[in-house]
């Protein structure tokens, strides 16, 4: 197993609107927007194009599509709708993939403001946003901030999802990685052990990510 595989930060959390969310939003929209619900189709088409561009590493094009989707959403739903928060989050992910870390942080800050206003303090979207903050700070080598925000994400995820969940495992992995980069090996070991236990249950003993966590644990003991 190549060692560089063991230092990869787990991917950012992406937000998307479900069919139920779509139908609910249609129910609460004014009649004028019911008559123009093709806005949803336009936004989702832009999101699909952005996702395709990201998948082929054309992040600048993805950013352009997401910016257009965000503008449509704000113009039609207002600046404090959770869907707008989702688009800010996904735009932040595109900026981060393009190594535009300050712009990514700005987008996550906007997403967090929207979510805290509309969803309260304990919600999966808020946990995901903290997780994305943590990844961005890690990529900037701001390990203290990465640890802080991954800690926030882990606390919310455990509260909402329990301790045996893939997202919880990913938060533990990224915390372990940040602690290891800081040279705090005992804290890193604790996080990797927890990630290993979660992955072992959720993904299976012989899954590649489970084995990677196991290697990290053994290397730190």
From TrEMBL:
Entry keyword set: Repeat, TPR repeat
Keyword Repeat: yes
Gene3D superfamilies xrefs: Tetratricopeptide repeat domain (1.25.40.10)
Spans of repeat TPR: 85-118, 127-160
PANTHER family: NEPHROCYSTIN-3, TETRATRICOPEPTIDE REPEAT PROTEIN (AFU_ORTHOLOGUE AFUA_6G03870)
Protein name: Uncharacterized protein
Organism expressing this protein natively: Reticulomyxa filosa
């Amino acid at each position: 197993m190549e060692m560089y595989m063991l230092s990869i930060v787990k991917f950012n959390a992406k937000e998307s609107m479900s069919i139920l969310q779509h139908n609910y939003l249609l129910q609460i929209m004014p009649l004028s927007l019911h008559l123009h619900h093709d806005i949803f189709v336009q936004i989702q088409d832009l999101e699909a194009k952005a996702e395709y561009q990201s998948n082929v590493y054309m992040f600048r094009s993805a950013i352009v599509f997401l910016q257009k989707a965000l503008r449509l959403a704000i113009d039609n739903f207002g600046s404090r709708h959770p869907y707008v928060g989702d688009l800010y989050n996904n735009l932040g992910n595109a900026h981060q993939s393009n190594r535009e870390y300050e712009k990514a942080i700005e987008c996550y800050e906007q997403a967090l403001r929207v979510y805290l206003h509309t969803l309260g303090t304990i919600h999966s979207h808020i946990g995901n946003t903290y997780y994305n903050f943590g990844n961005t700070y890690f990529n900037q080598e701001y390990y203290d901030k990465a640890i802080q925000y991954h800690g926030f994400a882990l606390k919310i995820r455990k509260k909402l999802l329990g301790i045996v969940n893939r997202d919880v495992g990913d938060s533990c992995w990224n915390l372990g990685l940040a602690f290891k980069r800081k040279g705090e090996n005992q804290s890193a070991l604790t996080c990797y052990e927890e990630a290993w236990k979660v992955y072992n249950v959720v993904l299976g003993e012989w899954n590649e990510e489970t084995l990677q966590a196991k290697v990290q644990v053994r290397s730190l003991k």
